[in-house]
Design goal:
The protein is an alpha+beta fold and 154 residues long. It has one domain: OB fold (Dihydrolipoamide Acetyltransferase, E2P), CATH 2.40.50.110. The chain has four helices and six strands, in the order αβαββββααβ. It starts with a helix and ends with a strand.
C-alpha cells in the first residue's frame, strides 16, 4: 500500500515537473497564461502613441540576439515588423545562440524614437560591417519592449 502511494506521488511530481521543462526561464518567473500572439502585438504597437506604455505578455520568434552579451533581442511581429526587446534593469541576458527560438515575453510595450547613436550601437552589437553602421544617418521609430521575464521554448 505504501509503495502504491509513493508511486502515485512520484508520478504526480514527474508530471508536474515536465510542464516546466518545456521552457527555459530568464528574469522574473512568468507563466504561459494570457499570452497574445505576435500579430496581435503588432496591431497593439500600431495603435500606441509616443509616451504610451502597456503591460503585456506575447509570444514571438527571435529574429536576432545581441552577439556580445545577449543584452537585447529582436522579435518577429509578422509582415516584416520587429520589436526591439531590452531587459529590465539590465538584469538578465539571453543566450547568444537563441535566434529562431520561440519565446514568451512579459513586460512593457511602448513606441520609442531610437537615436542614430543607439542604432549604430545596436548594429555594431549585431556584427554589422563598418559600411552598414556608417550608413545609419536617421533616427527611427521603434516598437520597443522592456521585458521583466522571458520563457524560451526548449
Amino acid at each position: 500500500m505504501k509503495f502504491k502511494i509513493a508511486l502515485i506521488i512520484s508520478l504526480i511530481a514527474i508530471t508536474a515537473c515536465k510542464k516546466g521543462e518545456n521552457y527555459a526561464s530568464f528574469g522574473n518567473k512568468i507563466t504561459t497564461d494570457n499570452v497574445i500572439t505576435n500579430t496581435e502585438m503588432a496591431e497593439i504597437f500600431k495603435n500606441l502613441q509616443m509616451g504610451d506604455t502597456l503591460e503585456v505578455k506575447f509570444n514571438a520568434t527571435i529574429n536576432q540576439v545581441c552577439k556580445k552579451k545577449g543584452c537585447w533581442m529582436k522579435l518577429d511581429l509578422g509582415d516584416g515588423q520587429e520589436s526591439m526587446v531590452t531587459f529590465k534593469d539590465y538584469g538578465f541576458f539571453m543566450p547568444l545562440n537563441a535566434a529562431n527560438r520561440e519565446v514568451i515575453v512579459n513586460g512593457k510595450a511602448f513606441v520609442k524614437e531610437t537615436t542614430v547613436e543607439e542604432l549604430r550601437h545596436f548594429a555594431k552589437d549585431a556584427g554589422k560591417s563598418e559600411k552598414e553602421i556608417d550608413s545609419i544617418t536617421q533616427p527611427k521609430y521603434t516598437y520597443a519592449f522592456e521585458a521583466d521575464g522571458v520563457l524560451m521554448k526548449k
